[in-house]
Write a structure and sequence with these properties.
With 230 residues, the protein is α/β, with parallel strands linked by helices. The protein has helices at 17-29, 40-49, 66-76, 90-98, 111-127, 158-169, 177-185, 195-207, and strands at 9-13, 33-37, 54-58, 81-85, 103-106, 132-135, 138-141, 146-149, 152-154, 175-176, 216-219, 223-226. Helix 2 (40-49) packs parallel to helix 3 (66-76), helix 6 crosses helix 7 (177-185) and helix 6 crosses helix 8.
Length: 230
C-alpha cells in the first residue's frame, strides 16, 4: 500500500474511451495516481507490472470479462476492487461480489459517489492491522486471508471472508442487518434483498461441512450473532 505521502495508485479497467478518460481526469484531479487498461488482458498485465492500491473494474470487457479479471486479481492479492456495470439485478451483483469485488456501482453513476466509495475502500485497507482472530475452533489470519476451523482450511469468497471477519471481530454481539450492510457491503441492496441471508447460508454450509456445531445464529427480526452454544 502507498504511504501517506504517496498518492494511491488506481487502475481503471474500462473499454469505453469517454468513460475511461472522464474517470482518469477526475481521479487525477483528486490527487490519485491513475493508470487505464482497455481490456482484461491489459488489466492483468498492468496489475502485475505495478500493483495498484485499488481497481475500478468494468464488468463488460472485450476478451476476458470483468468477472474473470476480478477472480484473477483476487487470487493474487487483496487489492480492493470496485466493479462498474449497467446490470442492476441482485444475482448480477452477487456474481460480482463472489468473483472478488469489494463494492459494486451501477451505471450511470455520479463521480462523487465513486470517489466516496474509493476513499472508503482505501481507508478500510489501511485501518485494520494484520492479526489472527480466534473464536472457538475458528481462526482467521487477516494478513494472509486464511480461514480455518479446527484442522480444516476453508475456501471462502471475498464477501464470505469479509462477513466472517466481521463476526470474529464482534463475537457474542448481535449484528443487525443495517450494521452488516454498512460494514461488509458499504451500501444497501434494498430492503427487499435477502443478500445477507444468502451469505450467512453459504458460510454455515462451509463452516459445518465437517460436522462442526453451528456458530452463526439467527435472532429473528433482530440480526445475527457468533456464539458457541452450551
Amino acid at each position: 500500500m502507498s504511504t501517506p505521502a504517496t498518492p494511491a495508485h488506481i487502475l481503471i479497467v474500462e473499454d469505453e474511451p469517454e468513460i475511461a478518460g472522464y474517470l482518469r481526469r477526475g481521479l487525477a484531479f483528486e490527487g490519485f495516481s491513475v493508470q487505464v487498461a482497455a481490456d482484461g488482458h491489459a488489466a492483468i498485465a498492468a496489475a502485475r507490472e505495478r500493483p495498484p492500491d485499488l481497481v475500478v473494474l468494468d464488468v463488460m470487457l472485450p476478451g476476458i470479462d470483468g468477472l474473470e479479471v476480478a477472480r484473477r486479481l483476487r487470487s493474487a492479492s487483496a487489492v480492493p476492487i470496485i466493479m462498474l456495470t449497467a446490470r442492476d439485478a441482485v444475482p448480477d451483483r452477487v456474481a460480482g461480489l463472489d468473483a472478488g469485488a469489494d463494492d459494486y456501482l451501477i451505471k450511470p453513476f455520479a463521480f462523487e459517489e465513486l470517489l466516496a466509495r474509493i476513499r472508503v475502500q482505501l481507508r478500510r485497507q489501511r485501518a485494520e492491522p494484520a492479526a489472527v482472530l480466534r473464536f472457538g475452533p475458528l481462526s482467521i489470519d487477516t494478513g494472509a486471508h486464511e480461514v480455518s476451523i479446527g484442522e480444516r482450511r476453508l475456501d471462502l469468497t471475498a464477501k464470505e471472508y469479509d462477513l466472517l471477519e466481521l463476526f470474529l471481530r464482534h463475537p457474542n454481539h448481535v449484528l443487525t442487518r443495517d450494521v452488516i450492510f454498512d460494514r461488509v457491503w458499504g451500501y444497501d441492496f434494498g430492503g427487499e434483498s435477502n443478500i445477507i441471508e444468502v451469505y450467512v447460508r453459504y458460510l454455515r454450509q462451509k463452516l459445518e461441512a465437517g460436522g462442526e456445531p453451528r456458530l452463526i445464529h439467527t435472532l429473528r427480526g433482530v440480526g445475527y450473532i457468533l456464539r458457541e452454544e452450551s
